[in-house]
Amino acid sequence: MPEIAAGADLAALVAGAVELSDGDVVVVAHKAVSKAEGRVRRLADVDPGPRARALGRRFDKDPRHVQVVLDEAAEVLRAERGVIITVTAHGFVCANAGVDASNAPEEDTVVLLPVDPDASARGMRAGLRERTGARLAVLITDSFGRAWRHGQTDVAIGAAGLAPLEDWRGRPDSVGREMRATWIALADEIAGAADLARGKDTREPVVVVRGLERHVSDDDGPGAAALVRERELDLFR
């Protein structure tokens, strides 16, 4: 796809790039959404404060970039070994509040998370339905690290048209025992699968996942916000 500029109609671009059918799940890298929504900051416009300057010196990072991270963070949980672990306004616990310079449109710019990824997913779903008539779902994804494990995997930060969680608690397992903890993060599993088909450096921000018709709903559903664990239940904060 072309470089996405602020104001771009992503639904029109996607509808023009692929033929969509009922039951498709359209998985979109958040940076395409963020760029279309103007969620890009020029570091030249950022005046770092004392905390950003101190962290920049400590981690050998551009203090302007650090300031953008602090601006986007609702809370800083830890700042160690060059990584700032934050809680975003959305409730996501992630590195650097999702602020990232990779695949930014210009030098010395950084891309932020969408203000409301679930609303972005709902809007894109409506636009695709209007253009194609297809009954489909939309996921907006980002790469997150995981505690205790190396590497990153994509997760859903926005969702429309499917339930992001599938609850198997109370069902019997294969030998008849009642399952008590099996609550499948369906949207995250789809996000991770889609990432296998998307190059990080190939300008392919959209993947269409097929074969999940039974999970696609008529309504938008609760969104990816349903995946965020309530603070009082989070054993790691």
Tags for this model:
60s Ribosomal Protein L30, Chain: A; single chain; 2 domains; alpha+beta; CofE-like fold; 237 residues; four-stranded mixed β-sheet; three-stranded antiparallel β-sheet; 6 helices
Notes on the structure:
- The model has no long low-confidence stretch (mean pLDDT 95).
- α1 (10-17) crosses α5 (117-132) and α3 (50-59) packs across α4.
- The strands form four sheets. The chain has a four-stranded mixed β-sheet with strand order 8-7-1-11. The protein has a three-stranded antiparallel β-sheet with strand order 3-4-5.
- The protein is built from six helices and eleven strands.
- It is globular.
- By secondary structure, it is α+β, with helices and mostly antiparallel strands.
- The protein has two domains: 1-38 and 114-229, 60s Ribosomal Protein L30, Chain: A, CATH 3.30.1330.100; 40-112, CofE-like domain (CofE-like fold).
Shape: globular
Whole-number mean pLDDT: 95
Please mark out the parts with pLDDT under 50 across 5 or more consecutive residues, or reply none.
none
Question: Which fold does the CATH topology of the largest domain refer to?
Answer: 60s Ribosomal Protein L30, Chain: A
Structural class, from secondary structure content?
alpha+beta
Helix content: 25-40%
CATH superfamily of the largest domain: CofE-like
CATH architecture of the largest domain: 2-Layer Sandwich
Would you report the number of β strands? 11
Q: Beta-strand level of the residues, as a percent range?
A: 15-25%
Largest sheet: 4 strands, mixed
* Tally of individual domains: 2
Please tally the helical runs, counting DSSP H or I stretches of 4 or more residues: 6
> Termini distance?
40 Å
